[in-house]
Structures are given as structure tokens and as C-alpha cells.
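Translate structure to sequence.
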């Protein structure tokens, strides 16, 4: 049983619970009436067209945009306990020309627990080294971040999130544009994190990925279209309801949108 069990009847507390949540950017509604739970050691795939609210939901969970209705609980708390949530955004603001090594980037994941007045210590460096090993980049620790391939940089950003020791990991399109080697390395990392009890919420267009690492799927298009077990939710009917503006086909790997691939 998960260490985060509730005292009432021994029911495990979800890593993430979202109930009737709606989010907005200023006066503009961005996402409405979202309801789902995510258990420790499991993963949920967020799937929907561009602009459907996938990134909005991740930012809403982090408290980066306004929640106008409903509740969001992380480990049973209305505000995420410090250091319990890791986040890998779709685009990162790190300047590839900035003279910083991969190891230093990963150490950034320790800053929240360090505070601003304390330098990284032995334990922090050990956590960073463990995170680099988890993504298979130990041999590149001293390499300047900007010299890494795009896929290696993405794995490095995942290592930065892992270094904080999160209980919940939010990934925004982490597999976009990756070659097979880097994609498989990321899949392996996510599986190992789940085995260690980390809950993962991942935004993706890759149905092969969803089937490989996610127990549940949440379909979005401005509001919740469907949520539930992967094989039940990923029906052609549900996908067509989600991708309403285009004709779609569904094979065992991807949603096929005319004129595009891998969406």
C-alpha cells in the first residue's frame, strides 16, 4: 500500500485529484470542468488538438494560471507540498549559448529545496548524479548543455525535474521531434519512475506512447471529452469527438490527421 495512505479506511490518497476545475487567462476561459484522479505509480496521457488545453491544465495544476472553479489537490493538499511536483515544459527558456554544463542544469532541480542562501552540497550532487543516471546521460555530465542534441537536452530537462525527488511529474509534449533512441530512453525513464511510485501526467500526440506507459487517458478539447482506462477511452468515436475540426483515422500508434503525421 502506498505510504501516502489515508487514515480513513486505508484508502490511498491520489497523487493528483482534479474536481470540476476550470481555468482562464484573464477574462478568457481556457479550459472547463475537468475531473480526474491520478494514483501514485501510474500515468495519465493528455491527448487533444493544438490549443485544446493540455498545457493549460499542466500550468493550472502548478498554479501558474488562474483556476476559476473547482479544486486541485496534490497528495491531498490544495497547495503542492514543496518539492513534490516536477515539471518539464514544452519549451524551455534556457539559452543554448549560455555556458552551463548539463550537470549544472540538472542541479537547478535542487534549488527549490536549497533556497537561495545555500550552495549545493554532497547530497544535492548525489541526487543530480542519480537523475543523470536515470536518463542515461552520466557520461555527458560535464558537456555544455548547448552542445547536446535536441533529444539529449530534453532528457537533461527531465533529469532536472527528477533531481527534486518529485512525487508527481508533469510532462508537456516531451517526445516531440525525438529520434527513436532518445524516445526509447525517455520511455524507459518514465517506466522506472512509475515503478518507484512517481505519478506521471504527460501531454502527447503519440498513441503508441500512451499505450506503452499510461494506464488512463484524458481527452481534451477546451473541456473534458473523456477520461478513463486507456483501451476504453482510445476509441475512434472518442478521438473523432476530440479532433472535431479535421477528419481522423486511428491506427495502433497514432491519430492520423490529413496532411500531418504523428498528431
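Result:
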Amino acid at each position: 500500500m502506498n505510504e501516502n495512505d489515508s487514515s480513513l479506511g486505508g484508502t490511498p490518497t491520489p497523487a493528483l485529484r482534479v474536481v470540476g476545475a476550470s481555468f482562464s487567462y484573464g477574462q478568457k476561459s481556457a479550459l472547463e470542468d475537468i475531473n480526474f484522479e491520478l494514483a501514485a505509480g501510474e500515468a495519465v496521457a493528455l491527448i487533444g488538438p493544438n490549443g485544446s488545453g493540455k498545457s493549460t491544465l499542466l500550468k493550472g495544476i502548478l498554479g501558474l494560471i488562474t483556476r476559476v472553479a473547482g479544486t486541485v489537490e496534490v497528495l491531498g493538499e490544495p497547495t503542492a507540498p514543496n518539492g513534490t511536483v516536477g515539471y518539464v515544459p514544452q519549451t524551455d527558456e534556457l539559452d543554448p549559448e549560455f555556458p552551463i554544463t548539463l550537470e549544472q542544469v540538472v542541479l537547478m532541480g535542487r534549488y527549490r529545496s536549497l533556497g537561495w542562501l545555500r550552495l549545493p552540497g554532497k547530497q544535492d550532487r548525489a541526487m543530480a548524479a542519480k537523475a543523470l543516471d536515470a536518463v542515461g546521460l552520466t557520461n555527458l555530465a560535464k558537456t555544455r548543455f548547448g552542445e547536446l542534441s535536441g533529444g539529449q537536452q530534453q532528457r537533461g530537462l527531465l533529469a532536472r525535474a527528477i533531481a527534486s525527488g518529485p512525487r508527481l511529474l508533469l510532462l508537456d509534449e516531451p517526445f516531440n521531434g525525438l529520434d527513436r533512441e532518445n524516445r526509447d530512453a525517455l520511455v524507459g525513464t518514465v517506466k522506472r519512475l512509475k515503478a518507484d511510485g512517481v505519478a506521471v501526467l504527460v501531454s502527447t500526440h503519440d498513441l503508441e506512447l500512451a499505450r506503452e506507459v499510461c494506464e488512463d487517458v484524458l481527452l481534451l478539447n477546451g473541456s473534458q471529452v473523456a477520461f478513463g482506462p486507456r483501451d476504453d477511452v482510445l476509441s475512434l468515436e472518442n478521438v473523432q469527438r476530440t479532433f472535431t475540426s479535421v477528419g481522423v483515422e486511428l491506427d495502433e500508434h497514432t491519430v492520423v490527421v490529413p496532411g500531418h503525421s504523428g498528431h
